[in-house]
Amino acid sequence: MDIFGLPNPIYINLIREPLERLLSHYYFLRYGDNYRVGLKRSKAGHNETFDECIEMGGKDCDMKQMWIQIPYFCGTAAFCSEPGNEMALKQAKWNLVNRYLVVGLNERMEDLIAVLEKLLPNFFKGAFGHFKSLSGSFYKCFFPAGIE
Questions:
Q1: How confident is the model at residue 30 (pLDDT cuts 50, 70, 90)?
Q2: Phi and psi (nearest 5°) for 144?
Q3: Which of 2, 16, 58, 78 could share a disulfide with 53, CB 3.0–4.6 Å?
Q4: Coiled coil where (predicted)?
Q5: Residue 37 has pLDDT above 80, yes or no
Q6: Euclidean distance between CA atoms 17 and 66, whole angstroms
Q7: Does residue 115 fall inside a structural domain?
Q8: Cα separation values, 100 from 5, 22, 83, Å
Q9: How many other CB atoms are found less than 10 A from the CB of residue 1?
């Protein structure tokens, strides 16, 4: 029960794998996407690889760039948005363990749907089969031809 005398909601979340997200963002700054062709990117022309950036100690590949997911789990306190704040990391971990039923990865969405169907059958009954039936058409909804 929460402070209002009502049951707490069931928290679930779906995130990108943190390192994959950082790599994607790093290259997006340099090459953009296929949706806004011709848009000048802030790092356009910087052709160093992510590995080269790491070797040179570059800012764009600093692991603090991965911090962006911590505030989602930490909360709205000011310290939650401070990269590297130990208290924010501690609060985010506590919330994950104590408040979330499950957190899945985009890269493993099928697994998340299977887990949700088992944990919350009244709500997700049939979701896994439906998701599987979408097969390639699921991705075509979100990624037009040529963008995969």
A1: confident
A2: -60, 165
A3: 58
A4: none
A5: no
A6: 10
A7: yes
A8: 19, 24, 22
A9: 7
- Residues 46 and 30: their CA atoms lie apart, in Å, by 6
Number of domains in the chain: 1
CA 129 to chain centre: 24
pTM of the model: 0.71
Question: Three-class SS of residue 14?
Answer: strand
Residue 116 lies in a domain: yes
Q: What is the pLDDT of residue 148?
A: 42
How distant, in Å, are the alpha carbons of 50, 97, 119, 141 from that of 148?
Answer: 21, 34, 31, 11
Domain that holds residue 139: 105-148
Q: What are phi and psi of 69, to 5 degrees?
A: -85, -20
Residue for token pair 């029960």? 1
